[in-house]
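Hallway conversation turned thread

IA: we were arguing at lunch whether anyone had actually written out Phosphoglycerate mutase end to end. Turns out nobody had. So, for the record, here is the sequence (204 residues) and right after it the structure tokens. Reply here if something looks off.
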Amino acid sequence: MEIIFVRHGQTDLNRSGCIQGSSTNEILNGVGREEAEKAGSNFNSKKFDVIYSSPLKRALETAEIFTHDRNDIIIDDRLKEIDFGEWDGQPVAKIEKKYPDAIDSWGQVGQSYIKYAPNGETFEELNQRCGQFLRDMADRYPNSKILVFCHGTLIRMMAAHYLTNGNMNNFETIRNCALVKFNYHNRSPRMVYYNRVLYELTKE
């Protein structure tokens, strides 16, 4: 099995440095659409046997741009971003000032955040959700090429589930519209690349 994960394009919440979990359903902004169009123009989705997407607008819109509106995209709720509960939509800088122990040294939400946002999803729950999806893909499509459009923290956890028993500390959040690829053979995953970018936007 070959599986490639693609992070969605930029949204206004991304640009403003806000936490963007599953309860935020932003569309792509102009930059995000341009990212998806430029990356998609350097990518051939026709070589994939099956395409999956998160149901959230930012991921599905990216999928439709990348795949030129192919009508066979499978929507799967397991691919939603982590639910950050009360923190969804909040500026990271504001959260970090109030709860510095819940933001790691790279500026990412750490697993202890759940103390302050008790309605959120734990990292352990996210790991279980990612593991279930990955096992399902291996069972259904053992010899296929799979393309998945989803979210930054979710992709970190997909990689962590495969390689570090769910510890995301060694994985950065990939750029918008960047790719992560794994090969899976005899129940053994290998990372082929991480945070591969297919575009560069002109800076004005």
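OS: looked through it. Strands lie at 2-7, 50-53, 73-75, 145-150, 179-185, 188-196.
IA: good, adding that to the notes. The first helix runs from residue 12 to 15.
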